[in-house]
Design a protein that fits this description.
The protein contains 5 helices and 10 strands, in the order E-H-E-E-E-E-H-E-H-H-E-E-E-H-E. It has about 180 residues and is of the alpha+beta class. Strands 1, 2, 3, 4, 5, 6, 9 and 10 form an 8-stranded antiparallel beta sheet that branches.
Length: about 180
């Protein structure tokens, strides 16, 4: 088996890759629990920037999602940038619930313990961000532009926005 070695990089070294993947295909959010296997969720909405003078990723998770329960329990998560050959992973993780599937097992992915937080990352992804929730806010009904709310929230299943301070970013290389 080929081992992958990760090196720590600046949070903004991979902003182009982050933005490209979130616009075209998605990123992978990994959340943990003491009571359930680690879960992977495809995300297509997010933000990488500066808040309160700190590097932050903002992710939106609906209350109805299995990931929501895990984030509420642990307060930490990883955001993994998938490789080009992971379109099947993005599709599966965006259409199947972690309540019903152990996505790491189903997809034969490797869940590895993060370096600085209580979360796992996907070893097969070339880049991952370790995030610790420093703020969260519910999207209240009636506050979003009426057209957006009508189109995006027909079932009234609004998002919680999680502001994750980036405490580490890692880029991996295959070792021979």
């Amino acid at each position: 088996m080929v081992e992958k070695k990760f090196i720590e990089v600046d949070p903004f070294d991979n902003i182009v890759e982050f933005n490209e993947k979130i616009r075209h295909g998605g990123l992978l959010l990994v959340s943990n629990s003491n009571h359930h296997p680690s879960n992977i969720m495809t995300i297509g909405w997010g933000f990488l920037g500066i808040m309160w003078g700190r590097p932050v990723i903002i992710v939106a998770v609906r209350h109805s999602r299995h990931t929501f329960k895990l984030l509420e329990e642990t307060g930490s998560f990883t955001v993994c940038i998938p490789s080009e050959d992971m379109s099947n992973v993005l599709e599966f993780c965006g259409s199947k619930s972690g309540k019903n599937y152990d996505k790491f097992s189903e997809l034969k992915l490797s869940a590895k313990k993060s370096f600085k937080i209580n979360a796992t990352y996907i070893e097969e992804c070339p880049i991952f961000f370790e995030c610790s929730t420093i703020f969260k806010v519910d999207m209240p009904e009636g506050r979003l532009d009426a057209n957006l709310e009508q189109n995006m929230y027909k079932t009234k299943d609004l998002h919680m926005l999680y502001f994750g301070e980036i405490v580490g970013v890692y880029s991996g290389e295959q070792q021979k």
